[in-house]
Amino acid sequence: MKLETWKRSLENYKEDSMSLKYFTLEEFDSPDSPGSGKHMKKEFLEMIDLARGLAGIPFKINSGFRTREHNSIVGGRIGSSHLAGCAADISCTNSGNRALIIKSLIDAGFTRLGIASSFIHVDNDITKEDAIWLY
Question: What CA–CA distance (Å, rounded) separates 42 from 132?
């Protein structure tokens, strides 16, 4: 489906509900807090759902929302965007899928990406500068 069509469908989401085509909130739960995916920011979820549709391949979420405790356990940064519910790490281990995922994230409007050999970090944290980095 074309980017313009997806953007129009996003505009039709009801403000008081979360309607995702490709994800459930549980996929974004912190492992130590079932149901915590509800703390994800709506705009982030809409953008990543759009990106998933544009990519045409499944996104496996390794990490979404994180509690402070879990963030500490996994070595996350103090002030991590995961704590604010506006970040996710998407599993990715081959270059073909990595290219599709990165392109779809950029097309969906993301401007903050971290690229590792086994995952892609994406966030839309407005308190941080646009950036693309390597792990």
Answer: 23
pTM (two decimals)? 0.86
- 63 burial level (CB within 10 Å; 0-12, 13-18, 19+): buried
For the record, the structure tokens of 98 come out as 């990595």
For tokens 């953007």, the residue is: 7
* pLDDT, tens digit (0-9, with 9 covering 90-100), for 53-101: 999 999 999 999 999 999 999 999 999 999 999 999 999 999 999 999 9
Phi, then psi, of 114 in degrees rounded to 5: -120, 130
d(CA 11, CA 31): 31
In one-letter notation, the amino acid at residue 12 is N
Q: Which domain holds residue 111?
A: 23-134
CATH code: domain of residue 99: 3.30.1380.10
